[in-house]
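ingest -> validate -> predict -> emit
validate: passed (alphabet ok, no gaps, 234 aa)
predict: started
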Amino acid sequence: MADALAPLRASLIERLAALRGVEPGDLPGPLVDITLQRRDLPGGISVVVPMPADWEALREAEATEQRPIPWWARLWSSGRALARALADAPPSPGTRVLELGCGLALPSLVAARAGAQVTASDGSTDAVVFAAHGFAVNELQAEVVHADWAAHGEQLAALGPFDLLLAADVFYTRANVEVALALVPELLAPGGTFRLADPGRAGARDFLAAARSTFGLVTEQDDDVRLHTLTRRR
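emit:
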């Protein structure tokens, strides 16, 4: 397995170092100690996700360098639930899809496997590198962009409009709620859909309460995750 991972690891190191603006040898070891995690999903769908092998070690290494906590580097329950939901009810081929805060981009991988036209975005350059390599490993076509949706909303909107918007556990701050209320209508085409997975955060409740005036809402439960489907009224 080590030999099989060598070309992937070399490519990751090159891109991670370039986007961080450091020499390859200056990257933290846990960032480039990678594994391939296979995810088997409903409908016989299977994808492989490149990711750091030891998230706790990566978090400690990043803290030592006073860098942000690498929340992007794990497959959290909301992302897994959203991926399952997409596998159960995949977008039609050609559907224009945008994932916000994609992290390792598991939901985007599932959408791309269905033939959707996918754009995955994240504010972390490290996440963007891993997500891009995830599409390559799975031999899928997609666009991956470095964009913080709070700071680069206009640039994201210029790429759309999108038929389907994806997000998993993005309402952990009140600021994200305010940004989403303004941005989501700009990103979605008339009649477009926003599929949101959330573990029950107060921010998601606030967003949904405010969005009801312009969106139809259907909510389902997947273990400890709520899956919200918001459809923009025409």
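The mean pLDDT is 95.
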